[in-house]
Write a sequence for this structure.
């Protein structure tokens, strides 16, 4: 097969169906950009999970005098020194505990003033109204229930709270958004495939005389199909390249510059360039193979003429 013939046929086919070719490029670009974005979103969520789950604590809040009057869990009164010693001793014996830190009422009051000093409520609070607490770092964040079972409902304990539960809600929302993006991506891929199939069929119909002559002179099926498959592959590859450009530009302007989220949101560990660059070959390969296979199956009926 002459490469010059195939290349010339590709050019002719793309020019004849310029509008539909443009639609294929745009739909492939958008669908694969969403595909790459969903993969990067999954990487970002996993990176955030690894970063934050390693830092979450379980907090044991102790009863104070105010709680003794209003909270049923503290009906037996404020926590005593003996109860605090027993809690500390039990925590040190537990194999799931990595470290324990204690926050006194004065320290809790100081931290509250630093964070919410402008609040009208801050002026009316006193240190004795704040709650003492133990902050426990677990060796495995999934073992929260061990702490909750051991200390929830104990005398002097107002509540046991797991910060991981708050993060689970956040990550659940992010995962939901990611699945929504994947659903849109799947819809766009279907649209792209339909456009590719339709474009190839229109191109084949417009050149039915040429293909008929080639069949009569003994040209092989693959020789006839090759220009059409190559047209679809080239259009798809252009769309894939545009999708890669979208992802690179989005990473550059959203995280590094422009919005500069990496500077404004220091508490979030954003994915690096390596995560983006490793997705680009997959996107390009998909953009090349998907249209080529769609064109191959769409052309099978025309070879029976």
């Amino acid at each position: 097969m002459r490469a010059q013939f195939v290349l010339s046929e590709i050019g002719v086919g793309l020019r004849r169906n310029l509008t539909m070719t443009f639609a294929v490029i745009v739909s492939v670009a958008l669908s694969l950009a969403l595909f790459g974005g969903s993969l990067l979103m999954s990487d970002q969520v996993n990176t955030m999970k690894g970063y934050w789950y390693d830092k979450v604590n379980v907090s044991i809040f102790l009863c104070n005098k105010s709680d003794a009057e209003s909270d049923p869990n503290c009906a037996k009164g404020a926590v005593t020194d003996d109860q605090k010693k027993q809690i500390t001793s039990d925590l040190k014996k537990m194999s799931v505990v990595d470290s324990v830190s204690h926050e006194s009422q004065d320290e809790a009051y100081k931290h509250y003033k630093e964070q919410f000093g402008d609040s009208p409520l801050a002026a009316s609070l006193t240190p004795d109204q704040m709650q003492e607490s133990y902050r426990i770092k677990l060796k495995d964040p999934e073992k929260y229930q061990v702490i909750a079972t051991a200390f929830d409902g104990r005398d002097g304990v107002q509540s046991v709270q797991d910060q991981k539960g708050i993060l689970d809600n956040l990550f659940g929302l992010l995962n939901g958004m990611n699945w929504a993006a994947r659903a849109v991506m799947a819809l766009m891929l279907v649209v792209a495939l339909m456009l590719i199939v339709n474009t190839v069929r229109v191109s084949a119909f417009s050149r039915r005389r040429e293909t008929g002559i080639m069949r009569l002179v003994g040209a092989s099926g693959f020789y006839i199909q090759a220009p059409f498959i190559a047209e679809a592959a080239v259009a798809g590859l252009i769309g894939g390249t545009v999708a890669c450009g979208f992802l690179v530009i989005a990473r550059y302007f959203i995280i590094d510059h422009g919005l500069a989220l990496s500077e404004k949101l220091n508490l979030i560990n954003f994915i690096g360039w390596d995560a983006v660059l490793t997705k680009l070959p997959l996107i390009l390969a998909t953009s090349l193979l998907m249209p080529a296979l769609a064109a191959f199956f769409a052309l099978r009926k025309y070879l029976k003429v």
Summary: The first strand starts at residue 58 and ends at 62. DSSP finds eleven helices and four strands in the chain.
